[in-house]
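Newbie here. two chains, one complex. Structure please?
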Amino acid sequence: MIDFFESPSNREMVLSQLGQHIYLALVPLLLGVLVALPLGRLAQQVRWLRGLLQGGANVFYTIPSLALFVIIPGLVGTPLLSSVNVIIALTLYTAALLVRPVRDALDSVPAHIVTAATAMGYRPGRRFLAVELPLAVPVLVAAVRVASVSNISLVSVGALVGIGGLGRLFTAGFQLDYPEQIVIGIVLTLLLALVVDLLLVALWRRLTPWARAAVSRA
Amino acid sequence: MISELIAWLTDPAHWTGPGGILAQTLLHLYYCVVSVAAASVVAVPLGVYIGHSGRGAVLVVGVSNAMRALPTLGVVTLLVLNFGLGEGPALAGLVILAIPAILSGTYAGVRNAPADAVDAAKGMGMTPVQRLWQVELPTALPLLFGGVRSAMLQVVATAAVAAYVGLGGLGRILLDGLKISDYAQMASAAIVIAVLAVLLDLVLAGATRLLVPRGLVLAARRGGKD
């Protein structure tokens, strides 16, 4: 395995696939959160949309990633080898995974706080962004962490349809009968998932300073 | 693109024969059912034991979390390189991937059996084994089946990916289409895989409904859950 990293071209290749992998996993995570927020809000506020959105999200999440990577170019008209397909597919997965948690997280905001904000003159839009959303963060973060791990693991399937990322190490390692290369790919994927998870936890702590304040006061 | 796809899907020649959609769907289904069943044989008793005794719980949670990040394609290619090309190693990969979901579902189900029901069973003089069979296991069924469902979805997806290392099934049609850059063939296979995944999930959801004791369903409804 050390031999593998002694070659500068291998090092360069692994780094560039790692960068590609990070890009392909995290951009959809961000986009998926942005899609899920309004959907989750709708599911929370409009009763008859609740079951519909949840059911739709559940069914969508059952579609295997390889199938989705291939179906999307036909629907959207992107080239088959375009990384946009992976970004669209993983954005949709993230959104599907997050609709319910967003709804639950918004539900978890105590009613008296929402009422108080309304009484202080917050209009619904601003109240949502300034009061409800920040208070929903703790419940939401758990689901975002799951989505980030699942995205990071799914990107590698894209290598089968010729899209970059650490999955390339698996297909190349398999073709060259070079198991070390596959092990390197797996280890890097797991490490990436771990690092992103730690970063999300750090971000969550930054976003909810009151949680720590409450603990230190107690 | 869409019209080519419909033309491919509606051509009867693509459905019949040994490499046709029907045969490959059955093969795909066979892999999925066999590997989820094999994984259940290992994971359900283990999950029941860990949930009932509380031993090894940290390990279960840790392992099942780590497994979520494990890239399918990497696992399958590595197994096949190490244990030889063929169905055995690829199927073993499916079984290994299915175990954590079933294990953590079973464990969580048994662990979360309502404490008052367990206490009541103790008060009625049930032995631990009776308690396990008559209280903990029935109340664990919804979560247990939840685990089996997510394992099944993972296996359907992974079986498609495992076509890369020589497994038959619908992934074979998809990847063969890729080789000859026949988009209609790839997309048709992808659609059939997606439909199969959704149908299997519906069947398991139906099975859950049939098998979860009615009292439990009523209690959940009274509890105001949706």
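Moderator note: DSSP finds ten helices and no strands in chain A. The radius of gyration of chain A is 20 Å. Thread marked as resolved.
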